[in-house]
């Protein structure tokens, strides 16, 4: 994948000192576009590359904020669509905003709600104006426009808000993707115009599928709008690892050096390594917690399925050398028992490990980038993980 | 309830220094039979009166051992019936015993399994030999005798094991209860004879319903067998608070002063206060965690139902002045949201509070006993709780 690892194109940009979030590069890898950085937000700083656990409904399922912090989480994501439907952004605002509401006083990012409208809501209709849809909870007819997505996110009060984008369902022809790019650019302009909250950053989202010209057009238009950060979207909606790599290859290096870059919805260890090599800083994905609830755990030797009978009397930890709570205290045999007995603690402990695994992986990446051996780390980890 | 609060009858007993668990009375209340004490076990000491959370299948539902400890839990209960069926006591033993298995390295008590055989298992048949039944999990035909109950508990390796007793289903005539008492006494003798593990205590269980003569006969026979501690059983199987009080009134004061006294299956704040007044030291009950999972929480002003719409925008904690994690960090509005959204964290945080509430209540009782004002505390708490 040499084309993704060349030195990134520099795009000149003004000073960022008055921005609600500030990104600084602390180290660059010699053999790839990987970078180690620091994202400062109104609720603290995050060392990058970093993985953000997903707290869909204002909670990372089964984990307290203390457990998240102890496991290495430093920034979490919450879903605008879910919170706007229940309990409603006005209720969250009345309860002091997302940080007070959730008890997580570190950095928070909210998505725009668009992805859930397209994937979860009933009978979504998309026009240039916005999306109208019916709530998957109670069938209420609702509307999500760029302006409304910004208003909801301002009420929720995360440190980082996302522009409403149009992520077309795959497979999609190039024409459909091009129209989605046009709409994404137009909506980004409207989001930028609508956004007023000074203590909240707004990120643009690059769409364009695996088409270099579309990704380039989208990135350039968004960069011209001067966002606080940029996301690469539309790469975790069912495409292959190769397609993800191609989308990244034609997107990441077009994004400004001095702004954080966020790859949405990606959480496989392999994909994190690939994406960091192209210069991505931030990730989110439900995979570690969803897999965890389903007894499937990350290890450096690949996935471990905790319901497997082989673990019944296995006194060893889920992963030797892991310093997470789960591995420090509990055996595979106990974890298997919890899943067989349908005990809540099984999903909890597996989620704790999976998140800690990804945080440890990003920590190792940061270290390797500083030490100039990211390419080597990537090869070692990919080889150990297997196919 | 003056008859339950008279000074306890002293029953002479030998030295207890060579016992696996040792109980010492640190303070006695002047106005009741309440006592503050200390139970030393192979896995640490517990200040009494104390409440033990129930970890039915080797886990207090949804909580890690760290969370239990932080919330004030010092001794937990695990269920022999459940663990013998799944994963099997031999698996627990192969994984290092209950403490290593569960990651809780404080004191643990296991029940005998009898209560679950009578309440959960299918087609239980009870003879003087023991109980035969079918597993509620897979229909396997199994047998629980006094000897087998001891063998399972020795394999599990708790600090305190319980004798197999016969707890008749209510309502039961006096004849049936008398036969259950005879069987309970005979089984206690067989348990005592079978029990060999030197680092594990064995407690006897007093049955006899609300009949003073039966309770007296049972208590005397068990005391003659010289157990490390004594439980009062058969008082949380559907009878009224008045019946519980009567059973305690005729049981507790017949148990030796220098041994711990454990009231099985009782967890209502009101019942704890009543029982401590008669000289009970230990309690267990699923109520705090089961109620918690069902959004019902203890407070000094009575039960709070978290799903109530009145809490939607309530920024105040579940209980003002409570120092548990839940009350320190989260609002009633957030807790309600978690329950409405069916998020695991709701049951977790409600369970944390309910356990902390009972631990705080027992802590206040210990303090009040030391300060000679237990009767006053009891009146105050009962009055605030309401009917």
Automatic annotation (TrEMBL), chains A, B:
Pfam annotation, one family: TGT
Coiled coil regions in record:
none
Q: Which InterPro entries does its entry note?
A: ArchSynthase1/Queuine_TRR, TGT, TGT-like_sf, tRNA_ribo_trans-like
What GO MF terms are annotated?
A: metal ion binding; tRNA-guanosine(34) queuine transglycosylase activity
E.C. designation(s): 2.4.2.29
GO CC entries: cytosol
Q: Which reaction does it catalyse?
A: 7-aminomethyl-7-carbaguanine + guanosine(34) in tRNA = 7-aminomethyl-7-carbaguanosine(34) in tRNA + guanine
Q: Pathway, per UniProt?
A: tRNA modification; tRNA-queuosine biosynthesis
GO biological process terms on file: tRNA queuosine(34) biosynthetic process
Q: Which segments constitute the tRNA-guanine(15) transglycosylase-like domain?
A: 33-384
* Region annotation (RNA binding) ranges: 265-271, 289-293
Q: What does the note under cofactor report?
A: Binds 1 zinc ion per subunit.
The active site lies at: 111 (proton acceptor), 284 (nucleophile)
Record SUPFAM superfamilies:
tRNA-guanine transglycosylase (SSF51713)
* Parts of the chain that traverse the membrane: none
> Where does the source fall among the domains of life?
Bacteria
Start and end residues of each stretch annotated as Disordered: 1-21
Q: Where does Zn(2+) bind?
A: 322, 324, 327, 353
Q: Which residues are recorded as binding substrate?
A: 111-115, 165, 207, 234
Q: Which cofactor does it need?
A: Zn(2+)
Per its UniProt entry, what is the enzyme's top EC class, as one word? transferase
HAMAP family for this protein:
Q_tRNA_Tgt
The protein's role, per its UniProt record? Catalyzes the base-exchange of a guanine (G) residue with the queuine precursor 7-aminomethyl-7-deazaguanine (PreQ1) at position 34 (anticodon wobble position) in tRNAs with GU(N) anticodons (tRNA-Asp, -Asn, -His and -Tyr). Catalysis occurs through a double-displacement mechanism. The nucleophile active site attacks the C1' of nucleotide 34 to detach the guanine base from the RNA, forming a covalent enzyme-RNA intermediate. The proton acceptor active site deprotonates the incoming PreQ1, allowing a nucleophilic attack on the C1' of the ribose to form the product.
Quaternary structure and interacting proteins, as annotated: Homodimer. Within each dimer, one monomer is responsible for RNA recognition and catalysis, while the other monomer binds to the replacement base PreQ1.
Q: What family name appears in the similarity comment?
A: Belongs to the queuine tRNA-ribosyltransferase family.
* Protein name as annotated: Queuine tRNA-ribosyltransferase
Native source organism of the sequence: Paludisphaera borealis
């Amino acid at each position: 994948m040499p084309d993704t690892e060349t030195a990134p194109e520099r795009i000149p940009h003004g000073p960022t000192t008055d921005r609600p979030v500030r990104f600084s590069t602390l180290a660059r890898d010699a053999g790839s576009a990987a970078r180690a950085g620091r994202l400062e937000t109104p609720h603290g700083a995050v060392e990058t590359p970093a993985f953000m656990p997903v707290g869909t409904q204002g909670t990372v399922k089964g984990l307290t904020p203390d457990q998240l912090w102890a496991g290495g989480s430093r920034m979490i994501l919450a879903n605008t669509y879910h919170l706007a439907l229940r309990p409603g952004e006005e209720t969250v605002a009345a309860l002091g905003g997302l940080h007070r509401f959730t008890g997580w006083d570190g950095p928070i990012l909210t998505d725009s709600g668009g992805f859930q409208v397209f994937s979860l809501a009933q009978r979504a209709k998309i026009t240039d104006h916005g999306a109208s849809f019916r709530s998957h909870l109670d069938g209420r007819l609702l509307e999500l426009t760029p302006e409304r997505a910004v208003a909801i996110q301002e009420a929720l009060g995360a440190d980082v808000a996302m522009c409403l984008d149009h992520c077309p369902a795959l497979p999609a022809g190039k024409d459909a993707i091009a129209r989605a790019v046009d709409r994404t650019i137009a909506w980004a302009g409207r989001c930028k115009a609508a956004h007023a909250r000074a203590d909240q950053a707004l990120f643009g989202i690059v769409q364009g599928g695996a088409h270099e010209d579309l990704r380039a057009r989208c990135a350039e238009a968004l960069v011209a709008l001067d966002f606080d950060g940029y996301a690469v979207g539309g790469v975790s909606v069912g495409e292959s690892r190769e397609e993800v790599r191609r989308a990244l290859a034609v997107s990441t290096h077009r994004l400004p050096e001095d702004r954080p870059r966020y790859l949405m919805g990606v959480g496989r260890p392999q994909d994190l390594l690939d994406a960091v090599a192209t210069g991505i800083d931030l990730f989110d994905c439900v995979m570690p917690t969803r897999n965890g609830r389903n007894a499937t755990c990350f290890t450096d030797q690949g996935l471990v399925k905790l319901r497997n009978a082989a673990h019944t009397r296995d006194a060893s930890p889920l992963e030797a050398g892991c310093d997470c709570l789960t591995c420090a205290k509990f055996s595979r045999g106990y974890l298997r028992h919890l899943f067989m007995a349908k005990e809540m603690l099984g999903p909890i402990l597996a989620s704790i490990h999976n998140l800690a695994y990804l945080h440890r992986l990003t920590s190792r990446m940061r270290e390797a980038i500083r030490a100039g051996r990211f390419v080597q780390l990537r090869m070692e980890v990919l080889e150990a993980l297997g196919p």
